[in-house]
Design brief:
The chain has 419 residues and is an alpha/beta fold. It has helices at residues 13-76, 83-113, 126-143, 162-178, 210-213, 237-247, 299-311, 322-331, 348-357, 375-384, 396-403, 406-418, and strands at 122-125, 147-151, 157-160, 185-193, 196-203, 251-255, 263-270, 291-295, 315-319, 336-340, 365-370, 388-391. It contains 12 helices and 12 strands. The longest helix has 64 residues, at 13-76.
């Protein structure tokens, strides 16, 4: 048998070149993947810095807004105020609301886009949510002599965060009023369709071009400035609407027949499958006197809020820093603690933590107030021991309702039974 010799063929120059090219491409791919990973990290860090800056900006702007809003509330409570004074009060109220809404929209857009917004959902009556939203825009609609036509015959229940969903509807109504001229018509209708609640907000205002309609829910998108549009904005209101509705497993769409022919926004939400009458009531609580410890280092905010609480029949003790507040809370009995978070000496988180660790101390119902409105700030406050977290500038009616609520009464009863 002849010997068989195996031979190894040397690569040709062409094969050498191809192998070198493959190695080069692999190296280039690895470099590009590393660059993409670095860009993702940079984008994540930039997002974190942006959100931190927005939170700080909102805090610094809300702090002066709080005493302005409270002082303005006191103007309307003066005995026999003149027509001129009431007009000044109305102007300040509108502008404070406008600034507050701009801040809220910026922060909401940031938290929604970063996925950090958390909903507190429960069965809620849809018509009541819409009426809450209508209250926030009623003054602007009246001032522009716009007609608001309501078709809400059905009481439908949805599983919703009442505050957030009402905010989404308010944004739609603000948008309709903004782009509708004086004397224009805004229609709100509610109906049930195939297991879903359908809400339409329609107007006969400026309308939209198809190009604008295609991106109307994108952040920082706005219609053209025209004489119809009487005020500015940040272009995030409809973006917030879409994200809140989608968090509720719903959908929102916009439609228009073109410029000058109005717009229609339709929100579709799943109906609550349980008892339709189980929605939580949205009305305020009855007036009742409480013993309140108010801890707030801003002198104007402390004094004005204290006077408002006194005028409502409450007994108010004021402290202007965390150390004094903790000392008073340890040595006296209060029904309610209203405590700012960013305090000198001892911040609100540490104050409530140390108070709860104090043997034998009476623990009041604790309400945190702060210029920070991020979900993480709220979560931290509740974890520290606060019962509620309220963002500045304060909605004084909501705060008064909370102070007089059954939650505070239950806290008082539980403390009394423990003694």
């Amino acid at each position: 048998m002849a010997n068989q010799h195996s031979t190894t063929r040397s690569p040709t120059p062409t094969e050498h070149a191809l192998a070198a090219e493959v190695d080069g491409l692999r190296l280039l791919l690895a470099q590009r993947e590393a660059e993409i990973a670095a860009l993702r990290d940079d984008a994540a860090h930039a997002g974190e810095r942006r959100n931190a800056f927005l939170a700080l900006l909102a805090h610094e702007l809300r702090n002066p807004l709080a005493p302005i809003s409270l002082a303005n509330t006191m103007l309307a409570k003066l005995p026999e105020p003149s027509a001129g004074l009431l007009n000044v009060h109305a102007v300040i109220h509108r502008q404070v609301q406008h600034l507050t809404r701009l801040l809220d929209e910026l922060l909401d857009a940031a938290s929604l886009n970063s996925g950090t917004m958390i909903l507190a959902r429960s069965p809620a009556p849809l018509v009541a949510l819409l009426r809450r939203a209508l209250q926030t825009v009623q003054v602007r609609i009246l001032e522009r002599h716009q007609q608001l036509l309501l078709d809400m015959p059905e009481e439908l229940t949805v599983n919703a965060d009442p505050v957030r969903l009402a905010q989404a509807f308010a944004n739609l109504l603000v948008n309709a009023s903004k782009y509708t001229g004086d004397g224009g018509i805004i229609r709100v209708a509610v109906r049930a369709h195939e297991g879903r609640a359908v809400v339409t907000v329609a107007d006969n205002g400026a309308g939209m071009e198809p190009a604008l309609l295609a991106c109307i829910f994108d952040p920082f998108t706005q219609g053209p400035r025209t004489p119809v549009r009487s005020e500015g904005g940040l272009g995030v209101g409809l973006n917030v609407v879409r994200m809140i509705v989608e968090l509720h497993d719903g959908k929102v769409v916009g439609a228009s027949d073109g410029p000058g022919r109005g717009s229609v926004f339709t929100v579709s939400l799943p109906l609550w499958a349980g008892d339709a009458g189980s929605g939580a009531p949205l009305a305020g609580a009855a007036r009742v006197g409480r013993r309140i410890l108010l801890v707030e280092d801003n002198l104007d905010a402390n004094d004005t809020l204290g006077q408002l609480l006194l005028a409502e029949g409450h007994d108010v003790t004021a402290a202007y820093d965390g150390i004094a507040g903790l000392s008073l809370a340890r040595t006296q009995v209060f029904d309610v603690l209203i405590c700012d978070i960013n305090l000198p000496g001892l911040d609100g988180y540490e104050l409530i933590t140390q108070l709860r660790r104090t043997a034998g101390a009476h623990i009041p119902f604790a309400i945190a107030i702060s210029g920070y409105g991020r979900p993480a700030d709220r979560t931290r406050a509740i974890a520290a021991g606060f019962g509620q977290y309220v963002v500045k500038p304060l909605d004084i009616d909501a705060l008064l309702a909370l102070v007089a609520s059954e939650a505070v009464t239950a806290c008082i009863t539980a403390a009394s039974n423990a003694r």
